[in-house]
Amino acid sequence: MSTFLITVGVGLVTAAILALSAIAFTLEYAVSRVANFAHGELLTIGAYAAYTGQNYFHQNVAAAALIAAAAGMLAGLALNTSVIEQFRGRSPATVLIATLGVSLIVQNVLTMIYGAADVSYSFAQGGLHHVGPFLWTTSDIEVILSAVGVCGLIYLLLQHTRLGKAIRAVSQDRALAQVSGIPARRVVMQTWGLAGAVSGFAGFMLADTLGTFGPTLGFGFLLLTITAAVAGGLGRPYPTLGGALLVGLVIQIGGAYTSSAYQNVYAFLLLVALMLLRPNGLFVHSARAVRA
Amino acid sequence: MYWVSVFTEAGIFAILALGLDMVWGWCGDFDLAFYGYLALGSYMTMVLTIGRPTPPVEYIIGGRLPYPLALVLADVAVVALAAVIGAIALRNLREIYFAVTTLGAVSALYVWVENYTPLFDGYNGVYGLINPGQTLLRLTYDGYRVGFLGAVLVVLLLAYLLAQRLSRSPFGRMVRSVREDERASAAYGRPVFFVKYRAYLVGAAFAGLAGGLFAVFISAFNPSAWTPQELLLIYAAILVGGRGNPRGVILGTFVVYVGFIELTRYLPSPASRPDFGPALRQVLIGLLIILMLKFRPEGILPERAGGRQPRRPAPGQAPGLAAGPPAEPAGAVAGAGPASADLADQEGGPQ
After folding, report:
1. CB contact, 8 Å: B283 with chain A?
2. Any idea where the domains of chain B sit in the sequence?
3. Whole-angstrom Cα distance, residue B345 to residue B351?
4. What is the ipTM of this complex?
5. Model pTM?
6. Nearest-angstrom CA–CA distance, B173 and B178
7. Which residues pair with A69 in a beta bridge?
8. Which of B275, B284, B298 is the mutation pick for testing A, counting most A CBs within 10 A?
9. Domain tally for chain A?
10. Which candidate in A155, A271, B240, B341 could, as Cys together with B252 as Cys, close a disulfide (CB 3.0–4.6 Å)?
11. Which residues, given as ranges, of chain B have pLDDT below 50?
């Protein structure tokens, strides 16, 4: 069993979680044109909600995941109503600072409730399985399968429902969507709910995979999320999957050959390379295809 | 003595805030790497003055240079780092892309310093009393603290005079013209990148200087002292005081540090929860930032245009931009148009 392939397997697990987080980030960007620096906190809220819920639901992983998603959805809706919509029409940098303020608030409210020390779940990780060339725990496999499932659902939602069509219209041009009779405000709201739910779920999976987590869980994941979203081209959900795969593999393989502590360094190097070479995303064919 | 240390800290952070304001207030770039510059300035000053490390502690250089020389060399190192990051981040990246790149830079630096122990002893950090001039002037400990406060305030005054002079110089007006409308400014022949780059380097030099003073003040520096969140406090200070106005920035720093921090020291913190009080304080800082941005983005002392033109209502600030793109920036660039605190919507992203 080569170490390299095991590392690739770990990278795929990271990429699966990252894909959900980055798609949610990119959906938020698509409808509201903001870089949500409080995005990580949606993940953290999901993780803590599952932590609170685990005692009531007798170690049921599915119930914990649902609680995480529900909490993330509420947080996403609240964030949109209380901050994002309030700052509509202001410059992107202003909204960015406001979301950074939200991030600070959420992290510290969680610290006030749960304390700054790390907490952990008591879910069993399951045995090790050989799947093709990879070596995964049961929970790793669950993470990958559920991420693929959620991505599939998002695809169906965006392409084959009225809401999905409306989301795509609003992300192209909110004003134009509004005059075409689409209730833009409500669609934006629903998108934030969706993104929040996906983020909360991703936060639960991230916390479960890491083992222990604290109030800065999501903020630490933000740089990876943004790098994946930028690699896909901000605001474009499907290429973001490719971005997540790239980032997940690069940081895990890079980390395996030096130290896993250096993951953020690799993410930064990748980000710089992207910014300098392909700031509009990796999978854009012509310069005109920006901001689809 | 307690108030002496509060004012010393506020004075040091006012210098950092003046530097950060050159990037955020004058150029309009939201930078998240600045605390890294303060940290590097602090680390470098220490390793240049406290002498060889005794194992198991390890760090680079370990010199015993006189403090002023160390301060200058540390600042050179900071500006060199800023030159690299600025060259990457400022060339084509604006708005969120710029913010993300600088966040990435500071995260990478942080992770590296924390984990690569031969540099600055990793998580343990570097410590050692510097106290320049204490033996020379034969000061008592308390006398020394007061003297150091005086020195910090003198440096702050010099930094303020320099910032004010730069702000009113043709260079200051050029920087603002670039901020207000980059394309118009470029069309008038302003070298957009170099204007921003120069302001960035001067700002970083201020941050490095603040770091060098900070090293003396706390005589220890480790990674827990410079999480990215610390920088938000500086942004809050700039927002409160008045972005783009050096006087306002200093006022804001003192208001936030002396007023806000001291008032919130007495927040309740149950004995079983030592994290509670500090966390509540951070929550209040976050609220302060959001409320200032929402209701008074120009701060207590708003920016003025070069001190000559009368103030007129800032463009792009009108309420009721609910739908549709904001109004076009008014005409061509007029040298130093008065700054709207909320910058006219430039095209986000790479250009």
Report:
1. yes
2. 2-226
3. 14
4. 0.84
5. 0.84
6. 9
7. none
8. B275
9. 1
10. B240
11. 306-351
